[in-house]
Amino acid sequence: MNAAPSIQKLLDELERLPGVGPKSAQRIAYYILNTDSSQALRLADAIHEVKEQVCFCQICFNYAEGDACDICSSAARDQGQICVVSEPKDIAPIERTGVFEGVYHVLHGALSPMDGIGPDELKIAELLRRLSSQEVTEVIIATNPNVEGEATAAYLARLIRPLGVRVTRPASGLPVGGDLEYADEVTLGRAMEGRLEI
Amino acid sequence: MNAAPSIQKLLDELERLPGVGPKSAQRIAYYILNTDSSQALRLADAIHEVKEQVCFCQICFNYAEGDACDICSSAARDQGQICVVSEPKDIAPIERTGVFEGVYHVLHGALSPMDGIGPDELKIAELLRRLSSQEVTEVIIATNPNVEGEATAAYLARLIRPLGVRVTRPASGLPVGGDLEYADEVTLGRAMEGRLEI
């Protein structure tokens, strides 16, 4: 686009963002150019602030400002129920359901021998330490329902069950509001197997 | 999402960007959190830099660093052909065609009496001043082919034609690679009217 060097630099940086292609980068760059300085710089400042202030919760390894995240330090949460997720971003969708009142543990990945990710690359030792140092009644393994996630869940279940802790996994089945006709056979098979009395 | 305050602030700022909804904002925020600091801060710095260094070209009112933009100050461009566009962002698509070797003039809007935008709100006086101070053989009015753009083009043509300058407008017609069947009737009508000898 024959852009001035500083505009080109901004475009390059914007295009690195996930889901932002050349067209969106250009739209965002024009927005930043057009908008008043104070507003545009608020975004720059927010990036600085987040990189300075956010670290990992020393208990669950979610993102946090300070030693413990809001969830781990909340008196309203049941410390006896731990929901294990692969990534910090998996916490938000579970929180939005509003049905889980326990705490989390973020593994920061899933077992994937092909990519060289074994148990030592994940926060598994830290999870076992939590289980031995506090009263935990249930571990819900909410890793993704894909090959790596299932393998990780099976591995963790084998480790945790001998400790006398209940190990569960969110149900697979038909999406609510979905259509039986359009369900893939694996999902529908799981839904049939997991059928409940009504 | 029960986010730490600095993460929430980043999400808020990201959601202000055009084309970035809550989901994309979250994806981008997690990317910024995950990526190493130097890379994330390069984006923040690029925003700062662009707001500090970019102003308007004093000749054509495109974005520029310094008094004149790259196009106006290029010896390779024909200063006798001026392509008039509504916004700086309209220059990039024309440049990409590679067929135009003249210079530009950015109006910063289009006539729209409903929105209170008359000739005085646009860089029209500045365009007329350019026409009187330098040898210009053709003005191509490349405002958008919508109501405001057409009105602006008609208004400019009436002003400029008496100066003995050729006034043109990019052709309307069928998109190359398009399908006659799917063309809207106004576009197809324009294409028929503007038919060329082959």
Describe, in plain words, how this protein is organized in 3D.
2 copies of one chain form a homodimer. Chain A folds into 2 domains: 5-53, RecR Domain 1 (Helicase, Ruva Protein, domain 3), CATH 1.10.8; 69-197, 3-Layer(aba) Sandwich (Dna Topoisomerase Vi A Subunit, Chain: A, domain 2), CATH 3.40.1360. Chain A is of the alpha/beta class. In chain A, strand 1 and strand 2 (63-65) form a beta hairpin. Helices cover 41% and strands 13% of the residues of chain A. The model of chain A has no long low-confidence stretch (mean pLDDT 90). Chains A and B meet through helix 1, helix 2, helix 3, strand 2 and helix 4 of A and helix 1, helix 2, helix 3, strand 2 and helix 4 of B.
Please tell me the CATH architecture of the largest domain in chain A by its name.
Answer: 3-Layer(aba) Sandwich
SS strand fraction of chain A:
5-15%
The helical percent of chain A reads 40-55%
List SSEs of chain A in N-to-C order.
HHHEEEHEHEHEH
What is the CATH class of the largest domain in chain A? Alpha Beta
Cα-atom Rg of chain A, whole angstroms?
Answer: 22 Å
Assembly state: homodimer
Number of helices of chain A: 7
Number of domains as seen in the coordinates of chain A: 2
The whole-number mean of residue pLDDT values of chain A reads 90
3D shape of chain A: globular
Query: What is the number of E strands of chain A?
Result: 6
As residue ranges, the low-confidence spans of chain A are none
Strand arrangement within the widest β-sheet of chain A reads 4-3-5-6
Gap between N and C termini of chain A: 62 Å
* Interface with most residues: A-B, 55 and 55 residues
Structural class of chain A: alpha/beta
Stated plainly, the CATH topology of the largest domain in chain A is called Dna Topoisomerase Vi A Subunit, Chain: A, domain 2
Characterize the largest beta sheet of chain A: strand count, sense, and whether it forms a barrel: 4 strands, parallel
